[in-house]
Structures are given as C-alpha cells and as structure tokens.
Amino acid sequence: xxxxxxxxxxxxxxxxxxxxxxxxxxxxxxxxxxxxxxxxxxxxxxxxxxxxxxxxxxxxxxxxxxxxxxxxxxxxxxxxxxxxxxxxxxxxxxxxxxxxxxxxxxxxxxxxxxxxxxxxxxxxxxxxxxxxxxxxxxxxxxxxxxxxxxxxxxxxxxxxxxxx
Length: 164
Known about the structure:
By secondary structure, this protein is mainly alpha-helical. It is built from nine helices and no strands. Helix content is 77%, strand content 0%.
C-alpha cells in the first residue's frame, strides 16, 4: 500500500496546480478536469518509476502537456474542420483576460503549450523544451509564431495585455 499512499498524498497536494495549468492549456473547465484525471491516471500507472525521477513535478507537468497535445491532435484529426485564413479578429472586450484566453484557444495545441509554459509558468527556453520533449529551436520558433498570431488576433488589445 505505500504506492497508493504516496501517490494519494502527491495527488492531493498537486491536483489544484495541475488543474490550473490544464485550464490555461484548454481554456475549458470540464476539459481541464478531464485532462488532470487522465494525467493522474498515467502518473499512477507509472508511479514506482515516477518516484525515482529527479523532479516529480516536472515529470507530471510533462505528462500533462503531452496528454493535452496528443488529445488535441486526435480531436483535430477526428473532425472535418478547417480555418479560414481571414478569420475575424476577437471582439474587443473589457475583460482582457477572457479576450486573451479566446485568442489562446485559436492557437494549435503545441504553440499554446509553448506560450503557457514560457509566459505563464515563466519557464526558460530549455525547461520548456524539456517539458515538451523538443529542441530549444522548436520552442523559439513556436513561441515566435504564436506571439505573431496573438498580436494579429488581439490587435490593440495585445499591447494592453503585455505592458504593465
């Protein structure tokens, strides 16, 4: 039973943080809860080896991000959907946070993960690359493209969001 107790203790302490990170990735409460549950299930299955990892939190966040990206890929493949190249800009909103979350939802899964890790979680390029399992160059290019899309979608709101 030490496996169950150790995992239960870890999950109880970290579940809220995982949910917050999942919500930033998904932008939807229900999807975020599902993502956290899927992540915790994967962590439980691998718990004996996860405990031996250098940084259990990094392992859990990496699992969360990869689960999110895989789910987004699967979801996009399953639907017959395309985006118009001249998509309308997000409507002006007094609540800039909601406007930003709507713009984030328009980004592809991996680009959204890069933006959340780099700018919300304040991870370095190297830490982000490690969490996503890619090179630092990939992080830089996804970051650059994602910020360009956000600037385009948010227009004047972008500068209000990034300036203190």
